[in-house]
Every structure is written in C-alpha cells, then in structure tokens.
C-alpha cells in the first residue's frame, strides 16, 4: 500500500471506528458484531504501526489511542481514583503465546502464574465502598471519568450494599488493610461487570418488539442500555446482575499479593465473584483452561465472549505496567493481561422464504424460513429478521445464501448475505403494505422501527391476545390458548377478550377445532373446564387484571406495584399519581436535552445559554416538587416512568374506557393483592426473601404474594443482602449458598410465624 492510500484508509477507518464506538458505548445499539468491529480496529492499529508518519499527519486522535467513552447526558460525572483501562484482544493460541513470550522475556522466566477468568459480556462498572458501605457506582466512561449510576446499580438484587467484616482465611484483615474499620479499608474501588441472563434478555426483547421498538442485539447491549436509564424504578424491573473481579484504588493501600488472594477477599466480603476461574502456571496450562471454559460456556445462563488471562502476581503486574505509559497521561491497557476472544459460531444456509407474523400489539415481524442448519448445538430452521429496516440494510432476499449465528447465544439471526452466491431470481424483498391476516393497510408510527396493523379486530392480534390472557401468570384460563383461541376467533364466537365471559359449556363444547372436512370437536368436558376457569378469573386480583388489559410496558411486577399503589381498577383509571410520574419522565428528559452544560447539544450562543439556564431552573423546581409527591406516596417509587405514562394513556383512551365499562357491566371488581400503604409498615418491611424447593401447602406465587403483602421483597438469588431463605423439599444450590453465607433458613411453618407477627 502506498502512503497516499494508507493515509486515506487510516482516515476512513478512524471515522468508521469512531462511529461504531458511538453506537456501542453511548447508545448500546451497535451495528456490527463484536468480532467484525475488532477486525476493523485491528486493521487500523496495524496500518498506524506500519505508517506512523501518515497516521500522525492526520492530526485527529485515533480510536486505538483511547478507551471507548460511555458517558451520556443526564448523569453526574465522577472521576475514578484509579483509571479504568481496557484489555487488548487475542484471537488464537499463537497470539496468546506471543503475549506470554513478551512477559517471559521481561521477567526472565517461563513459569509465570496466571489467573484465567471467563470474560462475561456486560457493562463495566466501578463500585466505591467507604468503611464497608457502598457509596458510589460509576461507569467506565472515558477511563478517567464516568457517569454516576449509583441509584440504578443499587437496584441489583445480588449486590450487597455493605461488606461483611471477614478477612480471607490465610491472613487477618489488619494485615491486608491498615484501617480503623476492621475487615476492610476506609475506601476501596472494586471493578466488575453488570450483565443480564439469557432468559431475562429474551423476555425484555419480546416486549420491545411488541411495543414497536428495535430489539437489542444481545444481552450486553441490553444491560448497558438499562444501566443508563434515567428511571431507577424501570431499571429494577429488568433483572440485572453483577459480578466483581477487579481492584482499583485502596485507601489506605492494601497488601494483597495476587489475583488469587483478591478473589478470596471478595468472596469473604460476601460479594458476587466469578464462576469457573482457574489458577494455572505457564501458557499451555492457560490455553487448556481456556479450552475447558469454551467447552462449558454454552451451558451457562449468561453470555461469555472469551477468557481473560492475567498475571497472578501483583508485583509482576506493577513491573509490566500499561500500554500508553510514557506517551500520554492516560493508561490504555495493561501489558499484564489480555482477552482471548472466542469467534462466534456461524453457519451458512439457504433462506427459502420470508414470512411475516402479526403480534398482539399489531407489530409485523418478518421471519427467515431457512433450510435447517446446525448452529451452537441446535438445529435452526427459522431466524428473526427484526423489521423492514433490517432487511433493507442487509439487503436480504428470498433464495439468498445467508450466514446465521445466535445473538446472545440464544436467538438465531441472519448476520449477512453471501452475495457471491446470489442467483438472478433473488429480487429485493418488498415489505407488505397490508396486514397479511386482515388486509388492513399497515402504518408506521413516527419514532418507531415497527410496522403495525392498526386494526384492533385483526384476527391474528386477537388470537395472540387471547393466548396471552390465558397464560398462568395472567388470568390462568386452562386450555383456552392455541387452537382453541384460533377457533373461537375464526368462528366469530369471540371478538373481544370480554366476550369470554358469555361462554357456556354446551355451545362451547360444539366448537370445531379442525376443518369442515376434518372436524375435531372440543367437547363438553373440556369446555366445562374452560368456563370454570373463566368464572375463577373474576376473582383474580387487580395486578393480574392490569396484566390482562395488555398495557404497554406493564409486566407482572409493575402491574402488582401499580395495583398496590392504588387499590381498585377505578382508582387506577382516575389516578393522579400516574400522570405526575409521566410528567416527571418528561421533565427529566428535557433537562438532559437542554442542559446549559450539555456536551452533546451545547448552547449555540450566549443568548441560547441564558434561555436554557432559565428553563433548566424552572424544570428543576418542577422536578423537585414531583419527586417530593412521589416520595410521599407509598409504592410510587416502584413504578417506572414509562409504565406510568402508558397506563395513564390507556385509561384515557377509548380502549381503556371500554375496558372499565365492560368490567363494570360484568360485575368484575378486582382489588389489589397487597397495599403499598400497609406494606410500608408491615411485619416484613425491608426484608429480602428467597424461595427454594417445594413447600408443603404453599405455591411459590402464593408465598411470594403473602411476603409482599406485609412489606417483604422476594428475590431470585441468594446474596449477602438476603435476610431469609425459605426452603422446602428438594431445595438445591440456593440452600447451600444460604448456609455458606450464614443466611437464616426457614421452613413453611417458620415463614407463617413471621407473617403473623404484628408490624
């Protein structure tokens, strides 16, 4: 490559990588897979090394010379006491051996000890504990300064807000930390990763698509995006988790000697630490540990995209130092650690056709119908195409040969098209202009990526709504979903969810679930079960009925929280709290947008700045007033801004008014299963429980409702923050972890005794 070509390519790559950095770090919605992004960045680094004069002549700072910047508007900026760096990547055994050889040459020895850790694909975070208490959580930012997301991080269930005063077994605490507070230093920065499990990722992405929003590409992006939400109540509804592994600043200085000792100390403090970490000696043992991790990671419930190899000895780490030292004030990456990245497993197959599904909110979702192919251990015959924009951007056509991989290791997606194999008959895909189910012209709402069928009476929408309502967590209408729902809609027996309450066993029993030529009759016995379930549904609590109304952004926990803060359906419909919370969301968003100190949207001139100062001050006053009202209203702190907005909008709409009217006509008057007012002063207020095993007489849901009714909180995982574990028959690892952490274990009788205590 001649120098002019190199100059042009370096400039183009810098611009391209910077654009992808913006999408990845600030927006948490990257356009490229990590592997492809890393390939671009490596090409840029190689060109800059080969043509240093040309690279320097461009003058602009290279993305290879800085840490990605995740700072965004709406958050207070905080300096890290010790800079947060990023890791250099390796992609094969040869590159890892080169990493080891450099260190072996530096230290004059080959028997170097390493810590090999799974690289969890999440969002980096730095926690600060002062005298054993969590006081601050800050994102990586630009490495020197990040966003203060403390309120959001404190919603994470498995993160203790206070350290246990427990030294590692091999050394007393006072030997490790010279501090007035025994067991931990006066101040310590602990680094880790915030992540989301596959199950939660799938749940939230399904809701995103139903709402007409672009789904997240993988759990990492969703975790990072959730961390930057301005509403901690909404963050709490998304089950984030955290794992801790890194050591930042310590005041006074620590005397820990190794990664192994540091991980032991983290566990002793009761903090969540890495699974599958290995201590090894030599590069071949490190490679063997990486292969072992690669073999088990497909069975893990969270995403890992590689392994991290670190020198175990802290003294050797200090001698190895950082890339960037001596050239700038900023440390870029440690020379004593690297990430061994796993290449994503992909497969090529033929896309036979593109079909379109219509969901319960009317969103049209395109699906790739594939010739079956094996990817990551399972046979894939269908893959999501997300939306019309995604098809156009990748130019996906029926008949194409396409590359498939599992996004987040669970959801099959089409990554790219093999253009070299495209046949002449593969023509551009034209997205339907009418609903494939009811022929209604489709619409696209401004600000949404989704294309919708606006016909609320669309048969496909009604079938999926009936399926949803029939679910166990909603109205639990036994045997109503699937082919029964399709037949009820096809025959016109049910045109609205509330029509279900007019069904009777005899006529329902005659329903034909098959075709005219091949009939399949439901039968009176099955029909009777369905009608009995519908009768029972009248008595379900308000939270379940709010779920049944299928309000945007209102899931199970949120529905119960809205119910608890109100009491009856009429009170929710006439709520003064919900519009205030919706207004609070608008105020917070506008303050971030028009901030006089905004770096993304700075004032145009002095007049604009002064106008912004006046508006910002007025909004700050309104925000304080709205937040004060929220704090005075029991249960309000649990309701997310967007859920409040959509619930208020629903009950202000004709659809909402119709639902309230029909429920009144049918005599359905649900009440909240618990009261936020009563719970605030209940017998278990502020206590966290974990349920495990099978209880003698209570189901999990019943026990959960009873605990929450008197102020308790039920978590899915055991941590140092857990107050009680309620264990039944066949209790598993949660019981073992509770005993290891010294958490009090109750049986059902013990739980009932606590529930009966006065407030």
Give the secondary structure arrangement, pairings included.
Layout: H1 3-26, H2 34-50, H3 52-57, E1 77-79, E2 89-90, H4 93-107, E3 113-120, E4 123-130, E5 133-139, E6 145-147, H5 150-153, H6 173-176, E7 187-196, H7 198-210, H8 219-227, H9 232-237, E8 240-251, H10 259-268, E9 278-281, H11 283-296, E10 304-311, H12 314-320, E11 322-323, E12 333-334, E13 337-341, E14 347-358, E15 364-375, E16 378-384, H13 388-394, E17 401-407, E18 411-417, H14 459-470, H15 483-490, H16 505-509, H17 524-537, H18 542-548, H19 556-564, H20 569-573, H21 577-594, H22 606-632, H23 641-652, H24 654-665, H25 676-680, E19 688-692, H26 700-709, E20 713-715, E21 724-727, H27 733-741, E22 744-746, H28 748-755
Parallel strand pairs: 2-13, 19-20, 19-21, 21-22
Antiparallel strand pairs: 1-6, 3-9, 3-10, 4-5, 4-7, 7-8, 10-13, 11-12, 14-15, 14-17, 15-16, 17-18
